[in-house]
Amino acid sequence: MRSNTLLLKRLSLIWKKYFSDVPIENRVLIGFGRHAEKRLGSIRKINMRGKKFDTLILLNGYFKDKKIPQYVLDATIAHELAHYAQGFSSPLPRLSRFPHR
Predict the structure, then answer these.
(1) Is 2 in contact with 69 (CB distance < 8 Å)?
(2) Taking the C-alpha atoms of 34, 39, 40 and 45 in order, what is their torsion angle to the nearest 10 degrees?
(3) Average model confidence (pLDDT) for the chain?
(4) pTM higher than 0.85 for the full model?
(5) What average pLDDT does this structure show over 48-67?
(6) Which helix (H) or strand (E) holds 44?
(7) CA gyration radius, the chain
């Protein structure tokens, strides 16, 4: 079984390698969520403190199983970081009205 610690390491590696031009404007947390059949990952605001907040990235709980290839986790993390870079659930300016534009 994979751990949330692994996800944190992968998040850091992917951010440095592919998103180094995206500033980290708040605390970004990552972990496994519930088992879901149709959602691979999600990103949302948590710990609202006025205009400040943390960002939480959740990956499908099924991804804990090592039968799921590592590249699936990495691609899902990268997808959620793309949302962060576009200003969705992040303090960065929002670049479009809809997240999958």
Answers:
(1) no
(2) -70
(3) 96
(4) yes
(5) 96
(6) strand 41-49
(7) 13
